[in-house]
Amino acid sequence: MAKKIPLRQCVGCGQMKGKREMVRILRTEDNEICVDVTGKKNGRGAYVCRSGECLRQARKNKGLERSFKMRIPDDVYDSLEREFGHFEAE
What we know:
Helix content is about 35%, strand content about 25%.
């Protein structure tokens, strides 16, 4: 039997993709937003495709804010965009 691939929906473009193809953004217990590279940290996670375009779309349509049920300041989005530059370079 083939192993099932866990699918996640991008909060930017809305596409369903394999969990491994996406980047997990995490809200920790102290309401801190960060990129979860391992995908195993504790907290509420939301997934975004590995493209800066999807992150910008998520910012515009407030996809992350809906997932985390909180307002996300612009400086947090800016630091996420900087971290995303590393993923796009890979």
